[in-house]
Known about the structure:
Elements: E1 7-10, H1 16-27, E2 31-36, H2 39-53, E3 57-61, H3 67-80, E4 85-88, H4 103-131, E5 134-139, H5 152-172, E6 177-182, H6 197-203, H7 212-224, E7 229-230, H8 234-245, H9 248-255, H10 271-278
Parallel strand pairs: 1-2, 1-4, 2-3, 4-5, 5-6, 6-7
Helix pairs in contact: 1-2, 1-7, 3-4, 4-5
Amino acid sequence: MEPNQHTAIITGATSGIGKAFAHRFAENGFNLIITGRRPEELKNVAKTLSTTYNIIVTTFIGDLTDPQIRLNLCNLIKETGKIDVLINNAGFGIDLPFYGTCITDISSMISTHIVATTEITHAVLPEMIRQRKGIIINVSSLGAFIPGLTRSMYLATKSFVHYFTESLSVEVRQFGINVQSLCPGMTRSDFHRNHNNAELEKKFELIKFMTPEEVVDQSLKALKKRRVLCIPGALNKLFFVIAKSLPLWVLQRISGFRNEESIEHTPVSVLPVIASVVH
Length: 279
């Protein structure tokens, strides 16, 4: 990361991984465009960043499920011109099965995870290609690789994010653009907004929750090595390797043991079950 009037745009920057990315790039002298749905929280984050690191922080308040909001953000990107870094982090989980989720919420998830990621990435690419450099990090999930271990729409949309990112990296590598699919496991974040993190960590006591800062550290280390896939955490990497080695029918059988009270973004909760199958 080379500072000096560089600009990074980070969606979903009010908390968690997005906020941690904002602090890291601000610390390195980047001016920021940060987005979020909660005005007060976003303004507080912007104030802290601008005063602590003496940078320019532009806030963009709006829900990325709204087509007009996405269009306005893309227009802002084009007006800004040179965007050096894009972090597509905005997202949420729904702890209901597909058949129990209203179609409005399903459409919102598709709009946020898939459509917004696609449109915003498309908006930053022309200038990155012209400059022949840039960084794009799309936040997917460890759950993207395992059918049935997260709610179906969350898994499907995060799978899109990952495979879109992998394919995009091949297309834009020739222009010097560094693209990464970041796939975290259990992370302390407002993502689990309907659950108490302390209770979650007690429930999954065998699993070490990562902090957003740890996730960002590992993401940026992988970025320097130009690794397209980044799975932060040794245990998460182990889970990924084991899961990828199992046939689909075994994964489907394992998914039948899923605790109905478990939440999105928690595929590592079934690691002991997978271990028992493997051994």
